């Protein structure tokens, strides 16, 4: 039986991004050896969206109050690359990881599978 998932974020500066998850987001972690940190995530869910071609995947953080979370992370030096916008299904923004990648974050308006 499948009992979990493992998200991978590829980075040109994995050390900086690991430090971000550890120090800025404060996620608990284990060291798999040689500083290779694996982080515990909050409850997660997965959705399958239609697309022209398969093979592209995205990761979004979810939060209860996007404006408060943006303020908190901005105070910690996080750079947001998109203002909060109303996507209908939620309030959406994006921020940059220290390694240069971006991830999305949103306050959902849809029912949450994490509440099951």
TrEMBL record:
Gene3D superfamilies named in the record: 2,3-Dihydroxybiphenyl 1,2-Dioxygenase, domain 1
Organism listed in the record: Gandjariella thermophila
Pfam families for the chain: Glyoxalase (PF00903)
Protein name: VOC domain-containing protein
PROSITE patterns (UniProt xref): VOC
Domain (VOC) ranges: 3-108
Superkingdom, taxonomy of origin: Bacteria
Classification via InterPro entries: Glyas_Bleomycin-R_OHBP_Dase (IPR029068), Glyas_Fos-R_dOase_dom (IPR004360), VOC_core (IPR037523)
């Amino acid at each position: 039986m499948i009992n979990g998932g493992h998200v991978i974020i590829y980075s040109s500066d994995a050390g900086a991004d690991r430090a971000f998850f550890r120090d800025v987001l404060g996620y608990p972690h284990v060291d798999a050896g040689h500083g290779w940190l694996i982080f515990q995530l909050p409850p997660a869910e997965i959705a399958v969206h239609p697309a022209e071609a398969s093979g592209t995947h995205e990761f979004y953080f979810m939060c209860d109050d996007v404006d408060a979370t943006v303020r908190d992370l901005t105070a910690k030096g996080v750079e947001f690359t998109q203002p909060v916008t109303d996507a209908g299904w939620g309030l959406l923004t994006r921020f940059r990881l220290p390694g240069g990648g971006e991830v999305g974050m949103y306050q959902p308006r849809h029912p949450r599978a994490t509440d099951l």
